[in-house]
User: Fold this.
Amino acid sequence: MVRSFIFSQGKLVSQDPGLDVLRLVLYDEDAQIWVDLENPTEQETKDLLEGVFSFHPLAIEDCVTLSERPKADEYENYVFMVIHCVAYDAAKRDICATELNMFIGKNFLVTYHREPMRSVTATIERVQKNAPLVARAPDRLTYHLLDALFEQYEPGLQSLALDLEQLEERVLTAPSTDIVGDVVALKGVVQKLRQVVLPQREVIARVAHGEFKIVRVHLLPYFRDLLDRLAHLNDVADNYREALTGILQVHLNLQQMQINQIIKVLTVLATLSLPILAVTSFYGMNIRHMPNTEWPSWEYAYIWILGMVILWTALIWWWIKKKGWY
Assistant:
């Protein structure tokens, strides 16, 4: 799908014009063009990127090929930029990235993406409702697009924060072996988020510091605001990573405490069984003519030995409690 808009003096004057009209308007310095290609056909891509705008073959190749890393390349009269929007899939515990390619010229903006993007749709709606505010020039329109794109990070971060809270509650109330797997999965999500945000900070920093002449000087503070937002997103990702490390450490400590408690109980039971083991093993020796085993005076020997074992066991238990060992 291809959507195109022509602006003049901050007003939307035409929508979805033909290719011939776009070629003519492209040479009008008082007009601005925005063409959005959403999952276009090969012919649509060729007609617009090559036929109308005559972009460099390398830029077109980078545009139609999915790239995992954001980038910004400056050509003779335009800047080619690759930016990613991310969404968090809570069910799959994974980050889904959508690529947005932009050709930013003096009087045109061309956006290319394979999947529908809320940021693009929202910007189109803003343009249609209030063109003077948004579409004064391609660099300002680029800012509004990026601003809407980075806003789409927030729902994913909120969903990720909710998963972290639930995981913390599970660790303290119902610990299980599944927690380690969940922590590892969420750490992978946070790492992917950082891998997207960090390179984009570098790209936006180049724009915000005035490296590209296409972006006018008075708009640089707006791009610095975008840079601050990306820095905040990176800080949030770092905080989530530290929180996950803390959750894992708490879980391991609780597991170790449970193991120590089990060992403690088993040790006490083994200690309490020492008297009966000592007595029974002594009188259970297979030795002929064992003393005090056949004397008539020992008709109450069973009761005596049982009482002695109980007494010793009670004394050991009292000593353990007195020392605070259990």
In short: The chain is about 60% helix and 15% strand. Residues 2-254 form a domain with the Beta Polymerase; domain 2 fold (CATH 3.30.460.20).
